[in-house]
Amino acid sequence: MRIVNAEVVVTSPGRNFVTLEITTEDGLRGYGDGTLNGRELAVASYLTDHVVPLLIGRDAHRIEDTWQYLHRGAYWRRGPVTMAAVAAVDVALWDIKAQAAGMPLYQLLGGASRTGIRAYGHASGRDLPELFDSIRAHLDEGYKSIRVQSAVPGLGTIYGIGAGSTIGGTGRYDYEPARRHPVPSEEVWDTRAYLRHLPTVFEAVRNEFGPDLPLLHDVHHRLTPIQAARLGKSLEPYDLFWMEDCTPAENQESLRLVRHHTTTPLAIGEVFNSVVDYQILIREQLIDYVRSAVTHTGGITPMRKLFDYAALYQVKSGIHGPTDISPVGMAAGLHLDLAIHNFGIQEFMPHTEDTYRVFQHDYTFTDGYLHPGETPGLGVRLDREAAAAFPYEPAYLPVNRLRDGTMHDW
Ligand SMILES: [Mg+2]
């Protein structure tokens, strides 16, 4: 089953997405997501200029060999641009193989290990009344687990907090971090104010919503190990499902210190792009959940290996699923979620209606649970005509400075 064509489509139905469309000699079409928020055109160029010419004429069935060819053959391994490009190829080939087999992809990955995929949604607010409204709106939509982000008194716009505009009159304060602007916006950060304020937010949420509701929180890489240890300890009374990205974690050993001080479960890895980034974290059981996205970790082929490795140490999945993962990347994650044994939870933010017009998808969200659907392949189709109506627009995630102007992790 030879590959006869491969094309990169960049479209921006509300935000930028990079999609690879691979066509085989018998007319099957597979899709892969290569979206890298704020660096989309770098991945598009990597694919168009350096990968697509290598794909033409290759056997679409040889997924492992193609992955190794692109990974080892480039000599320059890993890195977010490279791994997003390799992921786009890998996912498109799995899509094609599953279509050729006449099965939804999860069947090829071993079949369903569960009937539905537990998802968590993003609640946020500038103050407690807004936050409570947002949590209630998510509960009304069926979510059974909620990520809680709050503004910090004295700081302006910070990570995870919506601008206050409601979506469709629902009263929900949705949050979209990437802003359409030629340069990133700048935010101000104060770690001590955050560390003082956050436990009071979780105390209020627990008092309002009771002890059962699973609550998550994203620290977004902003703390040193000892600060993260202190936060984990101060949140223990509120029984978090996880504390996410508490440190940048590039220095994996630093998590030993955090782990030593707190029993709050830890989730890490949305900016990682290789199993190597997790070797110490998993082997020493320093984390509880792996946050990688299929799109940023080289595709389904390496993600299966990563989750199998994690399973040896009772570490579970928590696949990254914000709206900068396209519906193609989201579907790829859902097929894995359904198939692997060590599933933990799936992040889920619905895309805009425009995005769903461009990417027609068969996955569903019902009563708090996602399912990838039963269509052979991934179950996502790209409408090229609809995509062409939304040309690329520069958009960037913000950057972050301390009060004295020092650059900090965003
Ligand atoms: Mg995160």
Automatic annotation (TrEMBL):
<dbReference type="GO" id="GO:0016052">
    <property type="term" value="P:carbohydrate catabolic process"/>
</dbReference>
<dbReference type="GO" id="GO:0000287">
    <property type="term" value="F:magnesium ion binding"/>
</dbReference>
<dbReference type="InterPro" id="IPR029017">
    <property type="entry name" value="Enolase-like_N"/>
</dbReference>
<protein>
    <submittedName>
        <fullName>Starvation-sensing protein RspA</fullName>
    </submittedName>
</protein>
<dbReference type="Pfam" id="PF13378">
    <property type="entry name" value="MR_MLE_C"/>
</dbReference>
<dbReference type="InterPro" id="IPR034589">
    <property type="entry name" value="D-mannonate_dehydratase-like"/>
</dbReference>
<dbReference type="InterPro" id="IPR034593">
    <property type="entry name" value="DgoD-like"/>
</dbReference>
<dbReference type="GO" id="GO:0009063">
    <property type="term" value="P:amino acid catabolic process"/>
</dbReference>
<dbReference type="InterPro" id="IPR036849">
    <property type="entry name" value="Enolase-like_C_sf"/>
</dbReference>
<dbReference type="GO" id="GO:0008927">
    <property type="term" value="F:mannonate dehydratase activity"/>
</dbReference>
<dbReference type="InterPro" id="IPR029065">
    <property type="entry name" value="Enolase_C-like"/>
</dbReference>
<dbReference type="InterPro" id="IPR013341">
    <property type="entry name" value="Mandelate_racemase_N_dom"/>
</dbReference>
<dbReference type="Pfam" id="PF02746">
    <property type="entry name" value="MR_MLE_N"/>
</dbReference>
<dbReference type="InterPro" id="IPR018110">
    <property type="entry name" value="Mandel_Rmase/mucon_lact_enz_CS"/>
</dbReference>
<dbReference type="InterPro" id="IPR013342">
    <property type="entry name" value="Mandelate_racemase_C"/>
</dbReference>
